[in-house]
Write a structure and sequence with these properties.
With 143 residues, this protein is of the alpha+beta class. The chain has four helices and six strands; from the N terminus they run H-H-E-E-H-E-E-E-E-H.
């Protein structure tokens, strides 16, 4: 069972990396109570609004690549809901002209997927930036 939900979870990131809006749309359950919180934003509610937010993000991002670590899936006792957590190690760039145009970041995310008609679909996603407090403390001490 975890293989199926993890394959759908990975497809979510593949849709972002390739800018495939149709794939993204196929991964979400169509309900008004769905929600998605992008890093640093208030939650977006409703599937059509969520898909619009992803379409805008994908249109503005020149290059995005995700390296997922700490991926873990857990399930409700009836097996109808899966919770997938992971760390997204993100490489982004506005263009590929030079290595200087790339930036990296880390985000922790929690996704709730529901099993409908034998298929896992996203219902809720929340992502937050990872803050490295040790690195920030070291930078403050530097003169």
């Amino acid at each position: 069972m975890s293989g199926d939900v993890l394959a759908i979870h990975r497809s979510f990131y593949e849709s972002i990396e390739s800018g495939d809006v149709d794939l993204m749309a196929a991964l979400w359950i169509d309900r008004p109570d769905t929600s998605c919180a992008h890093p640093g934003t208030m939650p977006v509610r409703g599937t059509s609004t969520i898909l619009r937010s992803w379409t805008m993000l994908m249109a503005q991002a020149g290059y995005l690549q995700f390296f997922l670590t700490d991926v873990h899936a857990s399930y409700t006792s009836d097996g109808a809901v899966a919770i997938v957590t992971c760390t997204e190690n993100i490489l982004s760039g506005t263009g590929l002209e030079s290595a200087e145009s790339f930036a990296g970041g880390r985000v922790t995310s929690t996704s709730v997927l529901v099993l409908r008609q034998g298929r896992w679909l996203f219902h809720t996603r929340h992502a937050s930036p990872v803050i490295d407090f040790e690195a920030e403390a070291g930078e403050e001490g530097e003169a």
